[in-house]
Design brief:
Helices cover about 40% and strands about 15% of the residues. By secondary structure, it is α/β, with parallel strands linked by helices. The termini are far apart.
Length: about 200
């Protein structure tokens, strides 16, 4: 049986299906919920989305999400400025922070090398990473890219660029399942992977 909705509802359902993990049925359920929820809640959600889109940008130093020039971590004077953890996405920073095992700085690549998808080193945030490393303040780079083919290729590529600079470069240990993403790993697994890191 087919169900017909007004165009505005159909558009809402269609837009919701563009979100990760949201299929047509879930999108339909969410759309109908939004139509019948309290008006202030629906408008609150819409306002929060618009506000985040308008105010959030990338940290000038590390690339993390921020609503100021520098992110909270880069502004934190208690962090170890000699230790730099390289991750693929901002969500990976949240995963690492939840372990409470790391107190250094971060650098977000915004992806991983993937020739099959047309993503080379030039499409990642690597140039600014090398610029940061040339300052001489960083003593160790921890590669925390995802433990899959793309993440490994990215870690090895960066390691080859960094080694001639005389900076120690390590890789988080494989306590994280191969083929998995950091955002889905639990805190204990990530903590073990961090403490078991090894030099590349």
């Amino acid at each position: 049986m087919r169900y017909y909705y007004p165009d505005s509802v159909s558009r809402l359902i269609n837009e919701l299906t563009k979100l990760p993990g949201i299929g047509p049925k879930t999108a339909q359920r969410l759309a109908l919920h939004l139509l019948h929820t309290a008006e202030e809640d629906a408008y609150g959600l819409a306002h929060a989305i618009v506000e985040a889109r308008e105010k959030v940008s990338n940290c000038r130093i590390c690339g993390n999400l921020t609503d100021e020039d520098l992110c909270l971590i880069c502004r934190d004077s208690s962090r170890d400025i000699g230790l730099l953890c390289v991750v693929e996405q901002p969500r990976d920073i949240i995963s690492m922070e939840r372990t409470q095992s790391y107190n250094g700085l971060y650098h977000v690549l915004y992806g991983a090398i993937s020739p099959m998808d047309g993503i080379g080193p030039d499409k990642l945030n690597i140039a600014s990473l090398m610029e940061r490393l040339s300052s001489g303040k960083i003593k160790e780079v921890v590669m925390a890219t995802n433990p899959n083919v793309e993440g490994e290729a990215t870690a090895l590529y960066i390691a080859r660029q960094v080694k001639p600079m005389g900076i120690k470069i390590t890789r988080i240990a494989h306590g994280v399942p191969v083929g998995g993403d950091l955002e889905y790993a639990d805190e204990a697994t990530l903590a073990q992977a961090f403490f078991g890191r090894k030099e590349l």
